[in-house]
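User: Here's a structure from my thesis project, written as C-alpha cells. My advisor, Dr. K., wants to see whether a designed sequence matches the one we expressed. Can you design one independently, without my sequence as a hint?
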C-alpha cells in the first residue's frame, strides 16, 4: 500500500509515492506546470495515514517506515524526530536514522499504557537549518488480547423471593477487560458453570440463568422454597473475544427471602430436644368472642397426662396464647414421645347463660429428638486403692464409663506423669504398667492423680480424673547407723556403750519400731539393749582390751512381712577422760585430771612462742651482719655486695643537706666530687680535660654558709654556679661528656630532671619533715609560715 511504501508525501516524499500517487493526481507526475511563458512550482501537501504497530512485538528493533525529502537531490539531508516516545515521556520508544530516515521502535509497546503517538519529522541541513516544514507522523498501537477480564466484585450478593416465577431478575454481575474496547479482545461473554444449594443438595436442578452479554442473572425454574433451601452459591465465568478468549471466574451468593405463605395455626405435633430445659416448646391459639383484655377473655391453661412433670404451660397476657415449655430435661433413651392434654378455660367463671361447654381440650404430641450425648463416667474421680508394690499387668479398675446412645467407646490415658498406667482402648480396663513409688514427686498425701479420656463414635468425648490411693508396703530393710564408734573401758557398764539407730526408706507402719539383735554365735562378749522404738545400746559384757572390735548387729523393721539386715559395727574400746572422750596413750599415762584438749592447747601456745622468739633472733642476727659489712666512709646505703650496680643508686658520703647540696646536685657532684647517676657528669678520672684553663690548679672556694633568709637562696645558687664555671677541674658546659655504662631501661630519671613546674607557693613541702632530721632544715626553708 501507499502507507507501507512511504510515510510522507508532499514535502517529505519517497520516489515510490511520487510514482504511485501521480496516477491519482496529475500534479504528482507534472510538478511544474507552465503558466504563461514560464514554469511555476506547484505546492504539494499530502495527509499521511497513521502507522499501525502491534503491541508486545518481539521483533525489536522493528522498522516502521522510511521517510525521504526531495531535498536529497540538491544536497545532504539530516532527519530528526521529536515528540512523545522520542524525547518526551515516555522516552526512548522510537528512533530515526538521521541519514536514511528509517523510523524504528526500540522497545515493545503496551497499548493499555499508550494507545497512540504523534511525532514530528524534520529535514535539516548539516548546519541545522530546516529544509522543509515538519511533517506529523501518527503511530497507532494495535491491541492484542493480553489481558484477562476481571469481575468487579467477589462475591456478588443478591436476593430473590421464594416461589419467584421463572424469568425473575435477581441481579447483574459485571466484569471489565483492559484490552481495546472496540476490538474483539474486550467483547465479554458471561456464563454460570456451577451451582450449590445451602443446605447442600436441597435442590439439584438448575435454578438460575445468566445473559451472556449483559451478565444479568434470572430465575429459570420454579421451586424456590425458603423452608427447603436458604441460599445458592453460583460459580460464574467471564471470557473475552465473545467467549473464545481468556477467562476468569467469580462467585455470586443468592439469598432466598421468605414470604408470608403460611397462616398461623396450632400444630398438635411438637418437637423437643433432649437434655435441655427451660425453653419454649410451642404455643396454643384460642379464640374468645368476649371483650379483649377482660377477665372474660383471658384464658387459663392446664396440662394433663404429664406424670413426670416435664412440661409447664402459661398464658401470654398479650396474645392470650398458651405457651408450652419444657421444665425438666427429656431423655430420648427413656421416652421418645409424650401425649399431653391441654385444657383451656376463662379466668372468670362462665356465666350460666352460656352454653354448657365450659372448657376446651386439645391433644398435643411431643416427639423427643435424640442428640449425640457425651459418654458418662460411672464415677468422677475414679477411686482406686492399690499397694505401691503392685505387679505390672494387675487390673486396677474396669467398667468405668458408658454411653447413653449405646455407641462404641474408645478409651485413652490423657494424663499420667509417671507412666504407671495402661488402659484397654475398647473395654476401658485400667491396669498397672509398672510398680508404683510412694516417693514420687507426683504422689501427694499418698494419692497419685491421672486422667482418662473416653470418646464415642460421634467424636464427643469426656474426661475423668483417676485418684489412686497408694498403700505403703515393706520394700526396704532397715540399715544400722552409725557403723563406727568407741566405747570407754572400765567404769559403769550402764554408761558404757555405743548408741545405735536404724534408717528405713519405707514409711510407717512399714518402718519403726526397730528390733536390734546380736546373733547368738557372736554374743559372747557383747550385748545390745533396746532403748526405744528407734534406738539401742551396744555394750561389752566383759572388760575388753583397748583395741578395735567388729560386732555384727541384726536389725528388723515392723513391716508385714518384716525385713531385716545385718551390719558390721566397728567399735573402738579406749580409755576415756572425765568427759568420756577417748584420750591418747600419753594422756592415759599421765592420768591427770587435765583433759587432752587443754594439754594440746598448752603445747600449741608454747610452740608458737618459741617460733616467734626464733624469728626475732634471726632478724636481729641479720641486721648485725649487715652493719658489720658496711664500708667505712661509704655511707649506710652501700655494702660489699658484688651485685651488678646498673640502674642502682650510687651512695656517697653524707652531705648534710641544705643549700650546699643543691649546688652539688645541679652539677652532679658531692662534696668530694662524687658522681651522681643521671647528672650528666662522668666519674672523676674519666672526665675530659678543659683546654681553656691550666691543669692541676686549685678549685675555687664554693659558698658553704647557707643564707639565713630564704629570699637569698637565688644569690647563694648563683655564687655556686659561678664558682663551678671557673673551676679548672670541672669540664666546661658545652663539652661532650663521656659516661660509664650504667645499664638500660632504668625506671629512675636523672637527678637533673627533678624540678617543679609550678611556683614554690604551689608546692607542699610538709612531707620533708617525715624524712628525718637531715631534711628538717630544708623543710624549714620552704615553710610558708
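Assistant: Designed independently from the structure alone:
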Amino acid at each position: 500500500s501507499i502507507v507501507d511504501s512511504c510515510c510522507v508525501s508532499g514535502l517529505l516524499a519517497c520516489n515510490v509515492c511520487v510514482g504511485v500517487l501521480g496516477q491519482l493526481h496529475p500534479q504528482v507526475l507534472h510538478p511544474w506546470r507552465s503558466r504563461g511563458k514560464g514554469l511555476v512550482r506547484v505546492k504539494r501537501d499530502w495527509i499521511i495515514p497513521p502507522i499501525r504497530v502491534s503491541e508486545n512485538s518481539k521483533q525489536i528493533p522493528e522498522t516502521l517506515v522510511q521517510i525521504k525529502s526531495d531535498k536529497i537531490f540538491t544536497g545532504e539531508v539530516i532527519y530528526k524526530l521529536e515528540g512523545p516516545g522520542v524525547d518526551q515521556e515516555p522516552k526512548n520508544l522510537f528512533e530515526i536514522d538521521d541519514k536514511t530516515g528509517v523510523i524504528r521502535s526500540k522497545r515493545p509497546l503496551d497499548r493499555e499504557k499508550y494507545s497512540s503517538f504523534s511525532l514530528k519529522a524534520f529535514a535539516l541541513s548539516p548546519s541545522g537549518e530546516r529544509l522543509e516544514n515538519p511533517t506529523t507522523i501518527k503511530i497507532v498501537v494495535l491491541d492484542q488480547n493480553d489481558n484477562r477480564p476481571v469481575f468487579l466484585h467477589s462475591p456478588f450478593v443478591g436476593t430473590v423471593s421464594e416461589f419467584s416465577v421463572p424469568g425473575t431478575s435477581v441481579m447483574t454481575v459485571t466484569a471489565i477487560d483492559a484490552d481495546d474496547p472496540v476490538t474483539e479482545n474486550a467483547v465479554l461473554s458471561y456464563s454460570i458453570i456451577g451451582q450449590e444449594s445451602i443446605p447442600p443438595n436441597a435442590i439439584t436442578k438448575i435454578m438460575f440463568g445468566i445473559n451472556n452479554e449483559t451478565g444479568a442473572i434470572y430465575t429459570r425454574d420454579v421451586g424456590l422454597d425458603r423452608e427447603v433451601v436458604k441460599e445458592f452459591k453460583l460459580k460464574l465465568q467471564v471470557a473475552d473475544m465473545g467467549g473464545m478468549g481468556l477467562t476468569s471466574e467469580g462467585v455470586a451468593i443468592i439469598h432466598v427471602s421468605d414470604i408470608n405463605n403460611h397462616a398461623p395455626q396450632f400444630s398438635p405435633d411438637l418437637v423437643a430436644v433432649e437434655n435441655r430445659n427451660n425453653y419454649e416448646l410451642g404455643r396454643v391459639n384460642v379464640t374468645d368472642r368476649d371483650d379483649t383484655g377482660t377477665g372474660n377473655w383471658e384464658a387459663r391453661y392446664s396440662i394433663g397426662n404429664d406424670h413426670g412433670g416435664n412440661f409447664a404451660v402459661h398464658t401470654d397476657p398479650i396474645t392470650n396464647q398458651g405457651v408450652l415449655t419444657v421444665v425438666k430435661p427429656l431423655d430420648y433413651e427413656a421416652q421418645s414421645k409424650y401425649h399431653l392434654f391441654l385444657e383451656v378455660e376463662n379466668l372468670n367463671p362462665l356465666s350460666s347463660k352460656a352454653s354448657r361447654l365450659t372448657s376446651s381440650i386439645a391433644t398435643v404430641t411431643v416427639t423427643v429428638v435424640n442428640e449425640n450425648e457425651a459418654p458418662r463416667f460411672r464415677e468422677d474421680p475414679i477411686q482406686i486403692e492399690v499397694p505401691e508394690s503392685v505387679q505390672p499387668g494387675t487390673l486396677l479398675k474396669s467398667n468405668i464409663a458408658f454411653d447413653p446412645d449405646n455407641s462404641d467407646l474408645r478409651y485413652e490415658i490423657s494424663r499420667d506423669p509417671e507412666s504407671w498406667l495402661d488402659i484397654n482402648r475398647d473395654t476401658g480396663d485400667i491396669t498397672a504398667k509398672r510398680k508404683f513409688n510412694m516417693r514420687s514427686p507426683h504422689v501427694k498425701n499418698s494419692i497419685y492423680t491421672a486422667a482418662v479420656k473416653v470418646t464415642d463414635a460421634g467424636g464427643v468425648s469426656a474426661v475423668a480424673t483417676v485418684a489412686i490411693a497408694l498403700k505403703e508396703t515393706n520394700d526396704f530393710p532397715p540399715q544400722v547407723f552409725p557403723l563406727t564408734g568407741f566405747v570407754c573401758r572400765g567404769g559403769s557398764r550402764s554408761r558404757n556403750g555405743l548408741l545405735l539407730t536404724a534408717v528405713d526408706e519405707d514409711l510407717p507402719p512399714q518402718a519403726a519400731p526397730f528390733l536390734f539383735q546380736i546373733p547368738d554365735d557372736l554374743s559372747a562378749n557383747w550385748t545390745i539393749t533396746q532403748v526405744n522404738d528407734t534406738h539401742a545400746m551396744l555394750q561389752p559384757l566383759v572388760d575388753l582390751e583397748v583395741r578395735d572390735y567388729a560386732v555384727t548387729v541384726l536389725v528388723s523393721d515392723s513391716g508385714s512381712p518384716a525385713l531385716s539386715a545385718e551390719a558390721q559395727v566397728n567399735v573402738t574400746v579406749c580409755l576415756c577422760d572425765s568427759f568420756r572422750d577417748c584420750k591418747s596413750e600419753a594422756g592415759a599415762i599421765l592420768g591427770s585430771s587435765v583433759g587432752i584438749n587443754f594439754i594440746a592447747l598448752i603445747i600449741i601456745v608454747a610452740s608458737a612462742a618459741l617460733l616467734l622468739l626464733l624469728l626475732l633472733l634471726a632478724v636481729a642476727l641479720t641486721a648485725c651482719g649487715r652493719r658489720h659489712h658496711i664500708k667505712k666512709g661509704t655511707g649506710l646505703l652501700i655494702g660489699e655486695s658484688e651485685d651488678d650496680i646498673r640502674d642502682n643508686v650510687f651512695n656517697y658520703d653524707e652531705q648534710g643537706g641544705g643549700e650546699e647540696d643543691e649546688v652539688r646536685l645541679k652539677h652532679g657532684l658531692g662534696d668530694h666530687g662524687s658522681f651522681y647517676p643521671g647528672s650528666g657528669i662522668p666519674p672523676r678520672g674519666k672526665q675530659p680535660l678543659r683546654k681553656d684553663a691550666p691543669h692541676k690548679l686549685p678549685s675555687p672556694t664554693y659558698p658553704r654558709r647557707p643564707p639565713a633568709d630564704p629570699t637569698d637562696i637565688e644569690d647563694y645558687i648563683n655564687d655556686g654556679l659561678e664558682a663551678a664555671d671557673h673551676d679548672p677541674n670541672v669540664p666546661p658546659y658545652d663539652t661532650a661528656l663521656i659516661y660509664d655504662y650504667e645499664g638500660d631501661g632504668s625506671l629512675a630519671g636523672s637527678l637533673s630532671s627533678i624540678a617543679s613546674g609550678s611556683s614554690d607557693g604551689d608546692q607542699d613541702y610538709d612531707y620533708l619533715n617525715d624524712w628525718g632530721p637531715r631534711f628538717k632544715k630544708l623543710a624549714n626553708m620552704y615553710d610558708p609560715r
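When you compare it with your expressed construct, this may help: Helices lie at 2-5, 15-21, 26-29, 585-590, 596-628, 659-667, 713-725, 776-781.
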